[in-house]
Write a structure and sequence with these properties.
single chain, alpha+beta, 8-stranded antiparallel beta sheet, 7 helices, globular
Length: 245
């Protein structure tokens, strides 16, 4: 059983970043959250409204929730993918290991970084097509979760299953809902962030991502299923001009 599968079931677009030995706060700062934009929601309504505020301003920022589990920090974006950029993952992995998994528009990607270097990266629909300094580093763990050399179209959220297999991290919706929360900006400018280091931001390089657009699915903001009983039923259009599918 995959204790992270609920993320894929609950959110049509999402990004999970795990960093060994950090706190959730440290990870959010490394990913680009300003310390002034950190808070802990008082209740489910406040957490939910912040998430939806991010969706309504999707191309500017997204909500990110963070904490610690099994010796790893986690940062979960329930409705955006801004943390998936290589410069952010590179910065997050300075002096540690980072596992990233993100999904949008039917495509799930995995990236494993260590000490500022990309070790391996692939799409779970084509796990045999891997890049990085050591593409086979996670091969045994991939085999254990069913990500063999053939396309794994029959698997449900295999990237999240691999995240648990590699890190041992298990999370629940309840513990992430009221976790430390921050506003993760769409634009990454590390030189303006307190606590994120004084060096120059790493270069973006090339990043073959959903439609070539790092951080967001093609066609506009993602749809997130809202809990029953909430006032809103559809997300706002944000600055993109329309809601995604």
């Amino acid at each position: 059983m995959n204790p992270l599968a609920w993320i894929g079931d609950a959110f049509d677009a999402h990004c999970l970043v795990l960093a060994e030995g950090l706190t959730g706060r440290e990870l959010l700062l490394r990913l680009g959250v300003d310390p002034a934009d950190l808070f802990t929601p008082e209740d489910e309504d406040e957490a939910d409204e912040f998430l939806w505020a991010g969706m309504e301003d999707y191309w500017s920022w997204g909500a990110a929730r963070a904490g610690e589990a099994n010796g790893w920090a986690y940062a979960l974006e329930p409705a955006s993918l801004w943390a998936a950029s290589p410069q952010r993952l590179e910065r997050a992995s300075d002096g540690t290991r980072v596992f990233g998994c993100w999904y949008a528009d039917g495509s799930e990607d995995v990236a494993y970084w260590q000490d500022g270097s990309l070790v391996t990266r692939f799409e779970t629909l084509t796990p045999q097509q891997r890049s990085g300094a050591d593409p086979d580093r996670l091969a045994e763990a991939m085999r254990r979760v069913g990500l063999a050399e053939a396309a794994a179209v029959h698997l449900s959220h295999p990237g999240l299953a691999l995240a648990h297999e590699v890190t041992g991290v298990a999370l629940s919706g309840e513990e992430t809902l009221l976790a430390l929360t921050g506003k993760l900006p769409a634009d990454d400018d590390a030189s303006k962030l307190s606590g994120s280091g004084s060096g120059e931001p790493p270069s973006t390089g090339s990043f073959d991502f959903v439609g070539g657009a790092v951080g967001g699915p093609v066609g506009g903001p993602p749809v997130v299923r809202r809990a029953a009983g909430k006032a809103r039923t559809t997300p706002g259009a944000g600055t993109s001009g329309g809601a995604g599918s």
